């Protein structure tokens, strides 16, 4: 890949008087796994949610797979471009947010079938394959309420992958899980990175996962990327006092 | 302190009879006692009716004619609830819309139709709308708005109930967790897809029980349509009772029959309503078990 899959430039976002993002720039290359970390309130989740415009930035531009959308008014054209950009991003939420009225398989099929309008037979094959990849094929006909949190999150990952996105966005994917269920979700994410070279942006407190899987770690502090580098650099010799303080506290 | 001790002492001073009555009463289940109270109420009413020269034979003769009107009630109610559901859906989408036109129209709709008496609205549709149409429109268009009493009545009830149900639907839609909207948006769904595929199916579960209550209330309010005027073919139980009762000076008998007919009808639908509610509250677990 010559040009980055995701280009974020000059991202600003305020909630009322509180400026949460103070000018974020980030390029993400194909196959790169970026772990975004920092204290709560540092803007890391807001940054992730701005990439697919679940949060509207006040200033700045986001480009995903060549689709570029700038901050601005929700005109018809811009809303359409945002929807187009979203189909290239897979999103995994802290609270899973599976559709409770649909079976597991229907959850996974919903995006490609309804949004992309692909043929049902193809989508079914792809979806079953993805469910097998995350170890949930045997639950295809179940409803989400019958599944554990870890199982629901794995289905949610399959649902996001079904759109064959150019980048996967993970918003604290293990924060709502019981401790014994965290590893099964992290294992699926690690496999995505290792065997499928999926481009990923992961907001997480799981520093073990970051050390093992991340290509790059970005430390968010008070709305800016205070420091970034490889896990070796970040864990071995953090340059900023805040980074060191945070890492010492969470490890 | 001394006060309460004297109070407690009282039962011990009672006679054996009072005590054994209390003991016997405690042995009877609450439901049995309530049934007894109902039985006494019915007995008193029956006594009052017969003392006042209640004509039971007249009642037996006229009951079929009055009961026949039930079909009018059911037909009007079913048409009106269908139309009201459609209006409420549009109204609710308007109430949550960021579009000022949709928001404004739905706001006017719920404010006016919930803020004025139903009976006034029925006469507006029946008598005032034709006057407006004749004043504004050339023929033949004006006559499109001159409706029979039944049409004006059903339309009036549908718009009135639609306004109340708008608020039910709006709160049902808002009760769907925000994460569902985000998940739909993240997949790139349009507004229509998000509503149809994700939000409304979940809101439906929430709004079906209160909508059932509206339907039961509506069954009773269809009796108002008769006040606009009617033909024998389209007379509901109340209207038939009113006409036959007046003709034979048997108002008490006739209206009692009509009241019982509505009462029975709402009791039947309340029964199904409770069944439905119990089913809905079991939620998705039930279907999941079936599928698995």
Domains of chain B, number:
1
Structural class of chain B: mainly alpha
Q: Report how far the terminal alpha carbons of chain B are from each other.
A: 64 Å
- Summarize the main sheet of chain B: none
Mean pLDDT of chain B: 89
How many β strands of chain B by DSSP?
A: 0
Strand order of the largest sheet of chain A: 6-7-8-3-9-10
Largest sheet: number of strands, sense, barrel closure of chain A: 6 strands, mixed
Put the structure in a nutshell.
Chain A is α/β, with parallel strands linked by helices and 251 residues long. Helix content of chain A is 39%, strand content 25%. In chain B, helix 4 (56-68) packs antiparallel against helix 11 (237-248), helix 6 crosses helix 8 and helix 11 (237-248) packs antiparallel against helix 12 (251-282).
Produce the secondary structure layout.
The complex is a heterodimer of chains A (251) and B (292).
Chain A: E1 6-15, E2 18-28, E3 33-38, H1 44-51, E4 59-64, E5 67-70, H2 76-86, E6 89-92, H3 104-115, H4 120-133, H5 149-161, E7 167-171, H6 179-196, E8 200-203, H7 207-213, E9 216-221, E10 224-229, H8 231-236, H9 241-250
Parallel strand pairs in A: 3-8, 3-9, 6-7, 7-8
Antiparallel strand pairs in A: 1-2, 1-4, 4-5, 9-10
Chain B: H1 2-13, H2 16-27, H3 30-51, H4 56-68, H5 70-95, H6 100-115, H7 118-136, H8 149-175, H9 178-186, H10 191-221, H11 237-248, H12 251-282, H13 284-291
Helix pairs in contact in B: 4-11, 4-12, 5-6, 5-8, 5-10, 6-8, 7-8, 8-10, 9-10, 10-12, 11-12
């Amino acid at each position: 890949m010559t040009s980055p899959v995701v280009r974020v430039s000059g991202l600003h976002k305020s909630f009322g008087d509180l400026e949460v993002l103070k000018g974020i720039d980030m390029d993400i290359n194909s196959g790169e796994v970026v772990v975004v970390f920092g204290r709560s309130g540092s803007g890391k989740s807001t940054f992730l949610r701005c990439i697919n415009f679940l949060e509207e930035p006040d200033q700045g531009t986001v480009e995903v797979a060549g689709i570029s959308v700038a901050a601005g008014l929700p005109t018809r054209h811009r809303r359409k471009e945002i929807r187009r950009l979203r189909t290239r991003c897979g999103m995994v939420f802290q609270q899973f947010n599976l559709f409770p009225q649909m079976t597991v398989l229907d959850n996974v099929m919903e995006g490609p079938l309804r949004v992309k309008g692909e043929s049902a037979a193809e989508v079914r094959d792809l979806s079953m394959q993805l469910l097998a990849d995350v170890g949930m094929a045997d639950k295809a006909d179940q409803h989400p309420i019958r599944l554990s949190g870890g199982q629901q999150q794995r289905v949610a990952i399959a649902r996001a992958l079904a759109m064959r996105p150019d980048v996967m966005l993970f918003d604290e994917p293990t924060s709502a899980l019981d401790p014994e269920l965290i590893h099964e979700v992290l294992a699926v994410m690690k496999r995505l990175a290792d065997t499928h070279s999926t481009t990923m942006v992961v907001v997480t407190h799981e520093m073990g996962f970051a050390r093992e899987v991340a290509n790059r770690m970005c430390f968010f502090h008070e709305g800016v990327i205070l420091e970034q580098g490889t896990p070796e650099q970040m864990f071995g010799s953090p340059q900023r006092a805040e980074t060191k303080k945070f890492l010492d506290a969470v490890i | 302190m001394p006060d309460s001790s004297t109070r407690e002492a009282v039962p011990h001073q009672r006679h054996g009879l009072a005590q054994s009555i209390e003991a016997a009463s405690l042995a009877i289940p609450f439901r049995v006692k309530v049934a007894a109270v109902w039985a006494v109420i019915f007995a008193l009413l029956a006594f009052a009716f017969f003392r006042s020269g209640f004509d039971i034979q007249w009642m037996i003769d006229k009951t079929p004619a009055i009961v026949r009107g039930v079909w009018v009630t059911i037909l009007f109610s079913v048409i009106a609830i269908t139309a009201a559901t459609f209006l409420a859906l549009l109204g609710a989408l308007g109430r949550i819309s960021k579009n000022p036109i949709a928001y404004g129209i739905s706001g006017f709709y719920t404010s006016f139709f919930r803020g004025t008496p139903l009976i006034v609205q029925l006469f507006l549709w029946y008598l005032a709308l034709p006057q407006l149409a004749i004043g504004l429109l050339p023929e033949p268009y004006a006559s499109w708005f001159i409706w029979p009493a039944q049409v004006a009545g059903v339309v009036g009830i549908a718009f009135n109930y639609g306004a109340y149900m708008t608020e039910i639907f709006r709160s049902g839609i808002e009760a769907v967790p925000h994460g569902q909207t985000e998940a739909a948006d993240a997949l790139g769904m349009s507004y229509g897809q998000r509503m149809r595929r994700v939000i409304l199916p979940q809101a439906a579960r929430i709004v079906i029980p209160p909508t059932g209550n509206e339907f039961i209330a509506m069954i009773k309010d269809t009796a108002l349509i008769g006040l606009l005027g009617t033909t024998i073919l389209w007379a509901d139980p109340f209207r038939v009772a009113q006409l036959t009762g007046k003709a034979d000076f048997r108002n008490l008998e006739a209206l009692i029959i009509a009241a019982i007919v509505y009462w029975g009808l709402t009791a039947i639908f309340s029964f199904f309503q409770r069944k439905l509610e119990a089913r809905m509250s079991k939620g998705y677990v039930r279907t999941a078990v079936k599928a698995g």
